[in-house]
Amino acid sequence: MNRDMSDVTRTRNGRPVHHWRRDVVELAALFTAVAVADGVANLVGHGPDGPALLVVSALVLAATAGFHVWWARRPGHAPPVTDTDTGARPAVDATGQAGPDAQAPVAGGTPATLWRLRTTVRDEPGSLAALCSALAAHRVDILSLQTHPLADGTVDEFLLRGPGELTASEITRALARAGGTDTWIERADTHDLVDAPTRVLGLATRTALDAAELPLALRQLLGRCTIRSLPAHPVGGARRPETVPVEGVLEDTVMRLRAPEGGVITVERPYLPFTPTEFARARALVELDARLGPRIPHGQDVLTLPEGDAITVRRADTGDLEAAKAMHERCSARTLGLRYHGPVGDADRYLNHLLSPRFGRTLAVETASGRIVGLGHLLWDGDETEVALLIEDDWQRRGVGGELLSRLVGMAVEAGCESVYAVTQASNTGMVAAMRALGLPLDYQIEEGTLVITARLDAVAVAGRLSGAGEPGRTEAP
User: Fold this and answer.
1) What is the pLDDT of residue 152?
2) Can you give the three-state secondary structure of the chain, one letter per residue?
């Protein structure tokens, strides 16, 4: 305290205040310097070794000056921090958001790596500063930061950019020494550069436009997770409907939410517990979907098949239930058996689930008279995606199935799915040919007479093969 007061009284109106003691010291130093100079001059001028002593003195002075220059320019362990420091710093503001300079190359232009990192620290002053210092010591920029308060600590979630040679284990070890626990890290990409509020608003917009987007929005909001929807009345009544309270349930790595139609949405992420903040965001997204009610986009495309028939391709929902049942009645038992892999009499029982936008997307093919002759389903199955087709017998082998499948796979690509799979039989040559016509890498697996074909949605192949799928104004189907 005395030192601080002393520092304050040494300045008055922006000018230093002089004291008589400082003047006495400076005057004494001046007389001492004059006396030493006079003694050296007498020794050099009257001594027998005067010239040699003068040369040695000059060498000593030169060496001392060189040492001083080296000492002043040597690299230190950390840059000095003063009130007038203008040295380069990572462009991160007080909230952890990266400024414009954060896009500069790391380590002299070497390739940088983006990381998503989450760690838990004690809820006390200085915990976050210790983490930031540990990252700065490894030349890691903090591009964004989110905090998730807990009862006994805080979960800090970072988006980082570090040198390309820096490994994930080196980062986690540095944070462990700085007090971080339960650290989780994975590679990120440029899509993660969008800040959290912008991402949440974008997901809410997608959900508001299409009810089928809810599972996809939850997956993008929470990262890698498995999402399953259990309807309020399961098909066949084999399982007793599960119930959850209106406010939902959070159990470490599993959250259960009341689905808009009365069922249950289960979200599971085994590798990383959910935080109350994430639970609140997911619940708000589901509540928004429930308030808006069932809805689908109303766009449609009119196409002309190679034989000259005009068809309309549009989204379908539960409002098309009766028309879909009528198509079932016109389909042969073989066609229904290939599609549903079970008793033909049970086919109608699946339609209400398949047409619900809560569980995926459905495309319908209509004739000029308004009769549905084909249905294509893109179904969210946990963390996988299934495609399924049903084409009325009289409209098979005319390009309808290929058109539907191409559009469904295009939707899967837009939804960020890594692959799609179709469950059929080896005798269903039409479905096998349609999958092969996609031009995508395929995996085949046969289990108890059932053929599962998985198409890997490679970005380059999809862009080249499906570039025209789903575009309005097309007048010819493949």
Assistant:
1) 81
2) CHHHHHHHHCEECCEECCCHHHHHHHHHHHHHHHHHHHHHHHHHHHCCCHHHHHHHHHHHHHHHHHHHHHHHHCCCCCCCCCCCCCCCCCCECCCCCECHHHHCCECCCECEEEEEEEEEECCCCCHHHHHHHHHHHCCCEEEEEEEEECCCCEEEEEEEEEECCCCHHHHHHHHHHCCCEEEEEEECCHHHHCCHHHHHHHHHHHHHHCHHHHHHHHHHHHCCCEEEEECCCCHHHCCCCCCCCCCCEEECCEEEEECCCCCEEEEECCCCCCCHHHHHHHHHHHHHHHHHCCCCCCCEEEEECCCCCEEEEEEECHHHHHHHHHHHHHCCHHHHHHHHCCCHHHHHHHHHHHHCCCCEEEEEEECCCCCEEEEEEEEEECCEEEEEEEECHHHCCCCHHHHHHHHHHHHHHHCCCCEEEEEECCCCHHHHHHHHHCCCCEEEEEECCEEEEEEECCHHHHHHHCCCCCCCCCCCCC
